[in-house]
């Protein structure tokens, strides 16, 4: 897999799959078991059951929100890096006189962009492991 974006996507997918298998499924099972148990209390009012169910789902909701936030933050960082690559290409094109580039200039600009995006991926790949470790730590706290 030489495509930088495919490498990064594979790393993120693997990270999320590992978290799901190691923690999220257990957290989900615990939450659903807890919610089911709320309905076993015959002395509970309907409101009591709803409060109990809500309390059971809080940890899972927090983890899901944290995962979403971490993925969004990661994606924002990556997009900023890719935007700087686009800026680099625009700056290079402007220095060359602007206008529509001929095919050889277009190939050169594409090469500059591809190399820059590759660097973005290389810079961000280690962050996937850091994100996984952070999220795993948060999941462990809730198990």
From TrEMBL:
InterPro entries, A to Z: DUF842_euk
Listed GO CC annotations: cytoplasm
Endpoints of the signal sequence: none
Domain of life: Eukaryota
Family per similarity comment: Belongs to the FAM136 family.
Descriptive protein name: Protein FAM136A
Species in which this protein is naturally found: Nannochloropsis gaditana
Higher taxonomy: Eukaryota, Sar, Stramenopiles, Ochrophyta, Eustigmatophyceae
């Amino acid at each position: 897999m030489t495509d930088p974006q495919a490498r990064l996507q594979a790393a993120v997918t693997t990270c999320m799959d590992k978290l799901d298998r190691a923690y999220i499924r257990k957290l989900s099972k615990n939450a659903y078991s807890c919610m089911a148990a709320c309905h076993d209390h015959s002395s509970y009012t309907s409101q009591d059951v709803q409060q109990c169910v809500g309390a059971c789902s809080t940890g899972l909701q927090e983890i899901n929100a944290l995962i979403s936030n971490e993925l969004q933050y990661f994606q924002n960082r990556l997009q900023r890096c890719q935007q700087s690559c686009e800026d680099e290409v625009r700056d290079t094109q402007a220095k060359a006189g602007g206008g529509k580039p001929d095919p050889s200039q277009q190939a050169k600009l594409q090469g500059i962009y591809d190399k820059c995006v590759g660097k973005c991926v290389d810079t961000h790949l280690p962050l996937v492991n850091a994100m996984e470790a952070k999220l795993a730590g948060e999941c462990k706290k809730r198990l």
